[in-house]
Design a protein that fits this description.
This is histidine kinase. This protein is α+β, with helices and mostly antiparallel strands and 584 residues long. The protein folds into four domains: 3-169; 235-343, Beta-Lactamase (2-Layer Sandwich), CATH 3.30.450; 350-415; 424-583, Heat Shock Protein 90 (2-Layer Sandwich), CATH 3.30.565.10. Helix content is 60%, strand content 15%. The chain has helices at 3-58, 64-78, 86-102, 107-183, 198-236, 256-262, 274-280, 282-292, 345-380, 389-420, 432-449, 469-486, 518-521, 542-552; strands at residues 241-246, 251-254, 303-308, 311-324, 333-343, 427-431, 453-458, 464-468, 492-500, 504-511, 556-562, 566-574. The strands form three sheets. A five-stranded antiparallel β-sheet has the order 2-1-5-4-3, sandwiched between helices. Helix 2 (64-78) packs antiparallel against helix 3 and helix 3 (86-102) packs antiparallel against helix 4. The longest helix has 77 residues, at 107-183. The structure holds adenosine-5'-diphosphate. The site of adenosine-5'-diphosphate has 19 residues, from helix 12 and helix 14.
């Protein structure tokens, strides 16, 4: 049965019972009222008239008004005849009263009338008794009937109260529990209330929905599994090593390449904490250093040399954080990391070949260029013979080009040595002032040509330092030469050397040149990088070599620049590189 019908029937039944109860109550009250009315009208009035007649009879022979009073009550009594025998008694009283009116002192007549009035009263008293017992019975019946009807109403109400809320609440509770299960992706959940009620319909719709969700989820899981397989195959076939870990650093997947280069077995790797694997494996230990301590990232080299199957291989390390935004949430959550080792061996081999080539070529160039320089010096010598003006100009031009060529070959040779790792530090004591003067002298002729004055300032307490003189001079020379090359005529270049943090020395070279835009400041120390639009000739190698020379001595190189105002290049070195203190 439908809930609506049940509710209608229940409430309707109660309503009907209330109506019946009210009708019964009303009917019984009416009956009781009728019985009382009967007693009042029919018998009580007769008693009243009889009493008045008796009183008038007492004074009939003395009081002239008594006859009229008797007559009035007798007339009233004649109209109020209700009981059997009352009519005859009243008629007899009337007859005797007619005779009494003629002979008022007749005591026999008086006593007959008195007796008949008493009889009349007796008759009505009995009638009152009878009617009172009828009214009593009616009242008892009323109590019984109303009680039965009341009990019936109570029973119906009680049954409804016990059944109806449970009938509605139970399915709702079951449905709520099932919805909860569905929300937790338990799509196998079904509700089981049957029947034709609204809940039955709701259950059918709910079960259909759950079935469809289950179908959808199973097809989605199938799709996800296929997608996962595809991605796993893809990762396995990659030439780069890939290791995936979750947010608790548990290894989720490892591809074949990663197993090959780490020399580990899949069973000993997947499902383990990566730090446990690192205990027995050097490569993994190196790889996860950055994960364990993110601060150490800047000290970690990005490329690694690993021996795989007896051959040198080069890899570039990349650690990617995986952050996802869960459905229904707004903030992304960290769920793990992917460690990738990109195999850059072919590029590295090509790069090394290029470096060897550059090294060989620049080395081979050095001797002929030096011979050309010597030849030029001889040509400039008056003892050999005088040159005319035209020839002098030509010799000067050749000399300038030779100097430039020598600078370039010097830079290329340095680069090749840095890349092959053959550069070695030659730490010894030298005078700082001589170093500055050498750098000034080397650049003097170019500065004079552009009418650029080079000013130097050296802290008076600074005299000597212990470092690689050749490399430090090379760097100072390079940044002074840049300052002159990139500045316009009639400007100034300042070289300032001062004490820094008690045991360090800071070399700064400031110019009034064009300055460098902020966006390029991070790139100018990268090999071959030149600020776009730079007109002066150059290779883009000087600053990168300088950086490596300074960092190889545990120093730091820096630039500050303002477009249109000029640049200041500075480098900081330890005053005594042989003295062991913490590095800067
Ligand atoms: P090169 O000078 O041979 O191009 P560097 O490595 O010495 O190579 O310099 C890299 C680039 O930085 C230069 O090409 C130039 O654009 C910029 N640069 C270097 N020094 C200065 C300077 N003092 N003023 C303005 N730009 C400079």
């Amino acid at each position: 049965m439908k809930i609506k019908t049940k509710l209608n029937a229940g409430v309707g039944l109660l309503f009907l019972m209330i109506i019946i109860l009210s009708a019964l109550g009303g009917w019984f009250i009416y009956q009781l009222k009728k019985d009382t009315q009967n007693i009042l009208v029919a018998n009580y009035n007769t008693l009243q008239y009889s009493r008045n007649m008796l009183l008038a009879l007492e004074e009939i022979d003395t009081d002239s008004l008594a006859v009229a009073e008797f007559q009035k009550n007798l007339t009233l009594q004649s109209k109020n005849i209700t009981e059997n025998g009352e009519k005859e008694t009243t008629q007899s009283i009337r007859n005797h009263f007619l005779n009494l009116k003629l002979d008022k002192t007749n005591t026999d007549l008086q006593s007959s009338i008195r007796k008949e009035i008493t009889e009349l009263m007796q008759l009505n008293m009995s009638a009152i008794q009878l009617k009172s017992s009828i009214a009593n019975t009616t009242a008892q019946n009323a109590i019984a009937v109303v009680s039965v009807a009341g009990i019936l109403c109570f029973l119906v109400a009680f049954i409804l109260m016990v059944n109806l809320p449970a009938n509605i609440a139970n399915p709702i509770r079951e449905l709520t529990a099932s919805i909860h299960q569905i929300a937790q992706q338990n799509y196998r959940q079904r509700v089981r209330f049957e029947g034709n009620s609204e809940f039955g319909e709701l259950a059918r719709s709910f079960n259909t929905m759950a079935e469809k969700l289950q179908e959808y989820s199973e097809s989605r899981i199938d799709k996800i599994l296929k997608g996962k397989k595809r991605i796993e195959t893809l990762i396995d076939n990659m030439h780069d090593a890939v290791i995936g870990i979750d947010e608790n650093r548990k290894v989720l997947f490892v591809n074949d390449e990663a197993l090959k280069i780490s020399g580990l077995k899949r069973n000993n790797f997947v499902g383990q904490q990566i730090q446990d694997v690192a205990v027995t494996n050097d490569l993994i230990r190196t790889l996860i250093k950055e994960i364990i301590d993110p601060e150490s990232k800047k000290d970690q080299p990005n490329s690694l040399k690993i021996f795989v199957e007896g051959k040198e291989n080069y890899f570039e390390k990349d650690i990617v954080d995986i952050n996802v935004i869960p459905t229904g949430e707004e903030e992304s959550r960290f769920i793990g990391q992917v460690i990738m080792l990109r195999n850059i061996t072919p590029f590295k081999e090509l790069d090394l070949a290029k470096t060897h080539f550059i090294g060989t070529v620049s080395h081979e160039f050095k001797t002929p260029i030096s011979s050309i320089q010597m030849g030029l010096q001889l040509l400039e010598n008056d003892k050999i013979g005088n040159l005319n003006e035209e020839q002098q100009k030509l010799v000067k031009g050749i000399n300038d080009d030779t100097v430039r060529l020598l600078k370039i070959t010097g830079e290329l040779l340095n680069l090749a040595q840095l890349e092959t790792g053959v550069t070695q530090l030659n730490i010894r004591s030298f005078e700082i002032n001589s170093l500055i003067q050498e750098a000034v002298n080397a650049n003097k002729s170019v500065a004079d040509k552009k009418k650029i004055s080079i000013n130097t300032h050296l802290d008076s307490q600074l005299t000597t330092m212990i470092a690689d003189e050749e490399k430090t001079l090379w760097v100072l020379n390079n940044i002074v030469s840049n300052a002159i090359r990139y500045s316009s005529e009639n400007s100034q270049v300042n070289i300032n050397v001062e004490q820094f943090e008690s045991d360090h020395i800071k070399f700064s070279v400031s110019d009034q040149g064009p300055g460098i835009e902020k966006q390029y400041l991070n790139h100018i120390f990268t090999r071959y990088f030149r600020v776009p639009g730079t007109k002066a000739e150059g290779t883009g190698l000087g600053l990168s070599i300088s950086k490596e020379f300074i960092e190889s001595q545990n120093g730091r190189i820096n630039v500050e620049s303002k477009v249109g105002k000029g640049s200041t290049f500075s480098f900081i070195l330890k005053e005594n590189l042989n003295k062991k203190t913490e590095t800067i």
